[in-house]
Amino acid sequence: MRKLAIIGLSALALSLGACGQKAEDPTDQASSSAAAGPESAPGVTVTDAMVRLPAVPGTPGAAYFTVSQGSGAPRKIASVYVEGAQRAEMHETVTKNGISSMQQVKDVPIEAGKSAEFKPGGLHVMLFDVADSLKAGGTTELTITLDNGDKVSVPAKVEALGGGSDADAMEGMDHSGHDMSKM
C-alpha cells in the first residue's frame, strides 16, 4: 500500500513538472529514470524484459528477463514488481523423478560478471491478478529490488501467450504447494 502511495505521489509530481512540455515516449522515461534515479543499482542491468499475458483471464501471467551484474559486491534480487499486476512472485521450475513443479524462490543471487536469467522452464516471475489494461504489443514497467534496497526499472514488452512452449512448460506441473484460490 505504501508503495502505491509513493508511486501515486511520484506520478503527480511528474505530471505537474511536465505541464506545458512535449510528452515523452513512456519507454524512454522508464529506461532513463532507471539510469538517472537515486534508486538505480550501480553495475546492475536488466535486459530482455517481457511480460507474457495469461492464456485465460484470471489466471497468472509470467515475466521473463535477464539481470546482469558487471561489478560490485554480490547481491540478491529480493523482489520484482510489474506495473499492472497485483502481485509478483519469483518461482523456479524444478524437476524431480520426472515430475516438474514450481516452487516460490525467496531471493536470487547475482554476482559480479554473472547473470541470472528468468525464462520459461527455469526461474520466472508469476504475475497474479493481471490488469485488463495490459495489452499484447504494449509495454509496462518492470522493477527489480535488490537486497540492499537498490532498484532497477525497465520497460517490458507485453506479449500474448504464443506457441506451445510456455503452455507446455506450465502444463502438468504440480501446484499443490500453492493456494490456487489466490491465483
Give a topology summary.
Layout lengths: L1 H16 L8 H11 L7 E9 L8 E9 L5 E8 L2 E12 L2 E6 L3 E3 L3 E5 L4 E8 L8 E8 L4 E9 L5 H6 L13
Parallel strand pairs: 1-10
Antiparallel strand pairs: 1-2, 2-7, 2-8, 3-6, 3-9, 4-5, 4-8, 9-10
Q: How far apart are the first and last residues' alpha carbons, in Å?
A: 20 Å
Assess the beta-strand content as a share of residues: 35-45%
Number of helices: 3
Question: Taking all residues together, what is the mean pLDDT?
Answer: 76
The low-pLDDT segments are: 1-38, 163-183
Using only CA atoms, what is the Rg? 17 Å
The topology string of helices and strands comes to HHEEEEEEEEEEH
Number of strands: 10
Structural class: alpha+beta
Helix content: 10-25%
Major sheet, described briefly? 10 strands, mixed
Can you tell me the overall shape?
Answer: globular
Please give a structural write-up.
This protein is α+β, with helices and mostly antiparallel strands. It contains three helices and ten strands, in the order ααββββββββββα. Strands 1, 2, 3, 4, 5, 6, 7, 8, 9 and 10 form a ten-stranded mixed β-sheet that branches. A hairpin with a 4-residue loop joins strand 9 and strand 10. Residues 1-38 and 163-183 have low confidence and may be disordered.
